[in-house]
Amino acid sequence: MNNPASKEFDLFITDLNGNLRGKRLPVSSIDKVRREGVKLPRSVVGLDLWGADVLDSGLVFETGDGDGVCWPVSEEPVPIPWAESARSQVLAMMSNADGSPFEVDPRQVLCLVLERFRALGLKPVVAAELEFYLMDGKSETGQRPIPPAMFAGRGSRLTQSGGYAVDVLDGFSQFLADVRRACEIQGIPADTIIAEMGPGQFEINLAHVDNVLTAADHAVLYKRLVKGVARRHGYAATFMAKPYVDQSGNGFHVHFSLLDEKGRNVFDDGSDKGSKFLLRAVAGLMQTMSDSMLFFAPHANSYRRFLSQTHAPTYASWGYDNRTVAIRIPESPNPARRLEHRVAGADANPYLVLASVLAGALYGMEEKLMPNQPISGDAYAESEEGSLLPCSWRAATATLERSDVLQEYLGEQFVRVFLAVKRQEQRKLGMRISDVEYEAYLNLL
User: Fold this and answer.
1) Fewer beta carbons below 10 Å: N end or C end of the chain?
2) CATH superfamily name and code, 8-102
């Protein structure tokens, strides 16, 4: 992948689903963009998954479909090394026309939560682990996942689990090397690369960052990068939660610690158990987990991940160095004491995942909550029935609607618009008759 001088740049925000919405502009306009921003209808943030207006959102006809202003969040455009023609990109955040934050913008929602931490003299540190499937390039045109062949199509097609297999990394070494190179060019801190459990499934860990907004930006840009590099190699890539019904799903795990004004990790008290701040954060996350489920699993397909004994948690549970629970306290040196939140799917919006995780932890600390006893065995067998998560799309929607806590921490308008988007998507899918229904019923009833 070469990187000549760019003549154009893409400026974009994310909508509530994490899809990128924006404009392509000539590089000559960058100074004007820095001074004036770029106008887009505010309703763009609240489009449904397919890009249609959500009339119940309150952002379209009721407001005259007025503009917001998108402001770059970085000084300079960064190159897009996989683009066929020289181009760069700028991530942006939307404000209202009067300059106030547009609090439905997912990045602004995260800003709102982080402001509450700053007021307490606390700084979250996070790292993201995002899984994706690499597929044969024909998957995009056929709209069905096809496992890829190794060695640029000259090797065998993957059909089995590749969990931690080094030969699978070798089989896709050029693609993975180009992903790492593109991450370096764009300033995304890619760390460990793992061949995961499904055929063609990989996880590339992003390093810990003490600026949560930057960490979320990295996750958003990383998802675009992986898909772009895959296409340059003749593959397709997807962060869909469950592209294969009988294979591992794509998760989005969040590692989270918390620093005070002197840079000390307040989750560490010198013990293996962790501090009262850690335990309170765990308790808050346990109490808000069901309320937050629609952010962790925002689509119909998202709920296919949540099956017993699949490493996708189905209960609000926690434990030490236990991968069957929802909140894991990893084995680590005491100064690196942290929690790992394991519920979200890779199809979720990174800004909203981090905002809801941080809001839950902050709620637990502010209310001085304490969790129940940690689970040391199989969480699927040992969790209490009352801790079962809402593992259906409509149940999660109803649970969020009842959440006074998340409306307080994330904003009433944001929650209302997000619910309107999800309900419209549910109505659209509910009007479709599936292939399996025709196969099962048409000629038999």
Assistant:
1) C
2) Glutamine synthetase, N-terminal domain (3.10.20.70)
